[in-house]
Design brief:
The protein is mostly beta strands and 1433 residues long. The chain is built from six helices and 119 strands. Strands 107, 108, 111, 112, 113, 115, 116 and 119 form an eight-stranded antiparallel beta sheet that branches. It has a five-stranded mixed beta sheet with strand order 6-13-12-8-9, with no helix packed on it. The longest helix is centred in the last third of the chain and has 21 residues.
Amino acid sequence: MPYSCQHGGTCINSTCVCSRGYKGSSCENESLEILYLRSSKAVFREGNEVLFESEITDNSNFTVQWSRDGVIISGILSRYSITSSAKANGTFLHQLRISSVYERDEGNWSIMASNGVTVVNKGIIIRVLPKLVLLMIPQYDLSIETKENFTLQCVVVNPGSLINLTSGSLIWVKDGKPLLTGSIFTISTTQTSTILNKASAEISDSGNYFCLHSTYPDPLNVSIYVNIIGPESVEILLFRISDSISREGKSVWLETEIYEIIDLTVQWFHNGNLITNSSLRYEIKSYTTENDTLRNVLNVPNVLQQDDGDWNITASNGKTTESMSVYLRVLPRLVLQMMPPNNLSIESKESINLLCVVTNPESLFNLSGGGLFWQKDGKKISPDSGFNITTTDTSTTLNKLSAEEGDTGTYSCSHSAYPDPINVSLYINVTEPKSVEILSFKSSSSVLREGKSLRFESEIAFDPALIVQWFHNGKLINNSSKYTITSSITSNGTSVHVLQIFNVLLQDEGEWNITASNGKTSETKSIRIQVLEKLKLQMTPQYDFSIQRGEGIVLGCVVINPGSLQNLIGGSLIWQKDGQKILSGFHINTTNTSTQLRKSSSEIDDSGSYSCSHSAYPDPINVSINVNVTEPEPIEILSLKINKPLLIEGEAAWFESEIMNKSGLIVQWSHNGNLITDALSRFTLTSSTTANKTSLYVLNISSVVLQDEGEWNITATNGLSTASRGIKVQVFPRISLSLTPKDDLSIQTGEVIQLQCEALYTDTPAYSTGIKLNWKKDGKDISSDPSFSVSEAGTTTTLYKSSAELTDSGRYSCSHSAYSNPEDVSVYINVTLSDKDKPCPCQHGGTCINSTCVCPVGYQGRYCEDEYLEILSYKSSNSVIREEKSVWFQAEIVGPVGFSVQWSRNGDLISSTASRYVMTSSKTANGKTLHVLTITNVLQRDEGYWTVEALTSSKTEARNLTVKVLPRLLLQLAPQYDFSIKTGESINLRCVVINPKSLTGLSDGNLVWKKDGVYILSDFGFNISTTNVSSTLEKELAYLGDAGRFSCSHSTYPDPVSVSIAISVTKPEQIRCADDKIEKIMWKSTIAGTTKKESCPENQKGTATRYCNFQGFWESPDLINCTDVSLVNANEELDSIIADGTTKNVDEAVNNTLVKMKNLTSQRSELSAGDISSSLDILEKIVNVTNMTSANVEKEAFFAVVDNVLSTNNSKSWTAVSDKTEKDASSLLKNMDRMSEVVLKKENITTSKFKGKNFEVSVDKTKVDEKGIVFPEKTEKTPNDTTTDTEEYSTFLELPKQTNKIEKPITYVAVIYKTISDILPTDSGSRTEENSNEVKEGKEKKKKEFVNSEILSLTTQTDLGILSPPLNLAFQHKHENESADLQAVCVSWDFITNKWSEEGCKVNSTNNKRTVCQCNHLTNFAILMRPYTPVRI
């Protein structure tokens, strides 16, 4: 009987053979089985592809999960691809593909299948070898010189990556060619590293060097470029010594200047011995000059006898060497010996016998006169004072048979001609008081670090009345918590005194003294202590932080006070993690004072405490930070939506997606798999943060096209995880309209108007509600206009009118209602009058329509006869603005042709010549005009109301706006200029807001300090005290590291406004210029070789400078930039007039300035160089303002100022102006000429004369073709008169009656300058072979050309051209010409070349007292005496 088998089982021999997926005696149970799990390989390298396959049998639905070491793998991860498919035998094939395997993928991979009843799984183990990582040392391209040694090293960072490689090694390749051992290079290779070396580089060795592994399966390499260049030559430009003969104890400096090149090494030698900075007797320093040369200075502040001999400087760059030498002779310091050598204690009536001997007579070399002499208590002992004195060249004796009580005192012997105060002395005590004696004084250390302990000990001969005191830098020290003072008696009867300091600080550095006294005598001994700073480290970042796995770790550690590393031998900054030194896994870059720890991709086990310390520092000082590395969180795209699902071609659309915030997030949009970027003009990508701290990403499409249909996706990744979402979009074609007729047409009144409009592409789901077509004329709806009829048929509409009128002219458009921004098609119909219609009389271009005038813009009235003027709008870019910002005013105006616009500030009219204001105007599309006034640099005076006025001949319209100007922040630093101090002195800086109003509108912030661009914090050793408007920065004891540029600024002020000062901190022994007061200025001490700045004297503005030379002596002050306050104020007022272009009160301002200048220049016997320089500027600006505004200048005041400035008392100041500025007296000539032109432009010119001490002016009128001009009218001689009688010769000009016809009298200005010739440049630019004033060997000094007359000038209202007859000029010589080597030349001043020119002038007659010239043009004329150069044949 057959067995009953279920689920398709087959009965064979009474036994059910079940089909796949079932089991049991009757195949009644479901069966789930994993037949196998296998991988493509068992061992992989990083970057390979991995494929896992598993075959599973089941009869129903089941789920499958893949996992690695128990962690479930998701198919949405970009590296993994999970697929499944049914096989022909009824089983299912499941595959997991890893596109690029990582080292972390090593482990147990398993597949689990479940059908809700049964769960089965299988596993497999794979091994992943790391990817080869090579490191080149050095890491970056390098450049070396020929013959230098260069070495390259290549290292396998992870040797585990070479597992399973049976052969091969690291190899070198240069420019694509392998380098073999035994070639010109030396190659040393191990399994994991290789070294390439060449002892002497050549130019041909330049190239790219690659390192790779010969059998590694992937093409991995590292490379470096080596550039070999030729060596530069060393050149010593100069080598000099301050004194070649010096005495012991004096200071000597040696200086050299060398071209600065790469790898330059400079060494100093004395008698062949190397000199270094480590020697306390020598100071070596170097710096780069402004000419890019290297200046090296060796300073010997205290010359000794052993310094005698050859001194050499040697410069080398390893390739070339140059050496220079000088010889220094050192005379020994005078040594005197007193006998007896020690102080005496004698009784009265005992004899005094003293002998003083010069032990080294050679020290008296080069001394003229003088001899040994005696002093008692600083006063010279004369022979008649009771003492017997016997003196030779090298010895002297002092005797007295019977000493008296008044003979007690100090007796000294010295030499009267020796340059230094050297003497020997002893004290003679006639009353024999017991003297205090300090037997010893010592310290536990002379150099120690902060925080250590210090002990001073002194042994003193016992005295019951003894008083002992301790001092530090002159300050008394008492017992305290810091200082412990003890004393005790020794077994031999002396007393021992101890001072103990348990915690030494920086301020303990300096001189320590012990003073012992018994009330009658006292003794002091001292020790100098140096205290080194305690090491201070700073970690960046400063606080513990947390990052995600895969993010980088960057830690920095800096020595804040590099001076604390003094005296350390070796050692460097090191890193530790959890107390263990970090040796690998991180990149560490270390210098002397800083170190950086980096790792590009962190792991979980990188969490820990990281600390930084110095390996050689004696105390355990470190800084640390905790780093927590966590697993990255998955990215979550919360939503993706579009503004509407059905889009119409041409519409705007947007996509919006909300994503959870993640650090380092990168978001990309794509359409049908194509990436979308901002570079595509139709797309705009934006992002923002929402209130719930998610990110909102928006993609805007300005105009949709049909190709935009399809799938749109957004993808977010942070490099660690990725998420993506998509949305499908449909795009339908846009409706288009067709208009008949298509082209504009012209018809006459009474003809038919018929237009037809058809809508196309309307049969889509987007327009299921139907389309409405509309008619408009000139933008207004006419569908309901009774004069037109509208008919519709499907998607076509017709507009009809049987009889056209003039008013029917216009643009007719057809549009539809399908879109929010409806498209339209249009045609223009021009309806003209028929012959029966008559035009009306419209003015100003008006058009007559139906007997009515249609007026153009700017006109109104029945016939457009009236002007229409209106300011439609008036606005500014800002009503509150800060100084030095820009602001604009804009007015839209409608008005008739030719109307004008004026701008004014607080009622003061603004001129178009203003340099600060820009005025523009333009036409708008509707015929109106847009007028804009832009202020490029707003100043405080711009505050107030600004008015724009529109004007015609009959109408005026005005509008006002008010602007508030906040002043620019002004900070003042005290002291004001750079200064220098010594170590141990205090730093006191104060910064003040001069104008607190400038802080208006700032809600917070305060004054802050920086040093060399870095903010100064309270723990930097400075004391900072700050209020709203001031801040002080103080430090009680400065050290060398405090040198730098200190700046003060406001933390929230919108513009970068700051003041700064440079402070130099020097050692006490460095050469300086001492405090000095001169020119009413107190010059503070400064370093030798620098220029000091100070404020100008009282009632002057500007900055004075003074140079302190390298020997520590002040040079003369330079006050060229110091100017009287009244002149400075006048200069600034004129600048404002020029800058603003204002016309109000210009006459008053200019003339007030002239009166002030006249008073100032006339009251002083001599003007300073600064006042002359400023006066020249003011006179030029007065001419500019007068020319610009046509102001009425008081000529007499102007001429008086010029006269005072030209005074001969100012000769020295004129020389300083010429030497130190680009100005000279020619600028005065030029401005007088320009003022003459301004005067001659006036319509109502009055004749006037000015006669001063230094020049004369005449303004007059004449008809030059009828009567000539003679000036000055003070002589009866004629110009051609060259008689040599004893009468006084005069200088004058004569313009004869001209042959050219002149229609009317013309005004002229004639000037004679009496003193200006002495200060004008004398260069004529002539062809003379020698103008030089140098002295050549074997020859006399060359004579120089010079001006030898007063200067005459003539300017006329009308240009007379070439004069006919010529101008006659008679010049009296200032110096009689008695030399045949000098010849007189007639010249005129050329303002273009700024030189004297002979062009157009000739000598008519000349003698030793007088010269007569003839010139064919008008300008400034003089006589130039030129050295005679004979013609060589």
